[in-house]
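call fold(seq) -> tokens
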Amino acid sequence: NKERVTMEEVIMFMNLCKHSGLNPWVKEAYCIKYGNEPATMVVGKEAYMKRAEQNEFYDGFEAGIIVVDSRDGEVIHRSGSFRLPTEEVIGGWAKVWRKDKAHAYEAEVAFDEYAGRKKDGTLNSQWKSRPATMIRKVALVQALREAFPDKFQGLYAQEEFPDVSDVKLDVEKVVAEEVQANANNIEFPDATFEEVPQT
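ret:
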């Protein structure tokens, strides 16, 4: 029984996007609703990268996965998201550099702490099919947030919410459904409309 996002939550989401300089129409931010919890905003990785690249002090990044080899138990930090069939993904890592700092900002995250799971405890579809890619993203956005706290304060990526990775909502669809269902009862606060002259 999925709860529907209300028009009030959509309006709040749109205002948060405006305040944060994020464009939901090009998938920079998503409105997430999980169970009875209030809808919340999560940010796409591309929006993190775009914002970092626009910063004059941004000087690149490295990111990868942490795996353990089942044959000998060796723990390996690997760049990218490639892994061998004998390796289990146990975490992700990232480093972000700033031109005005002598050190890199580093993040390491545990797979079990962030992996999205269904109610029965099994991995959801994204985390099951792309575990290395998903945990690498978590590490990267955390390193970016540490390197540029003024640009990313209070913004979180979808992958950082283990319970909501399969319930991302398309704002355009939500708005269209809500308008269709409640066309006569919707109020848009602070909205102004100009009359278009007939030609």
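The first helix runs from residue 7 to 20.
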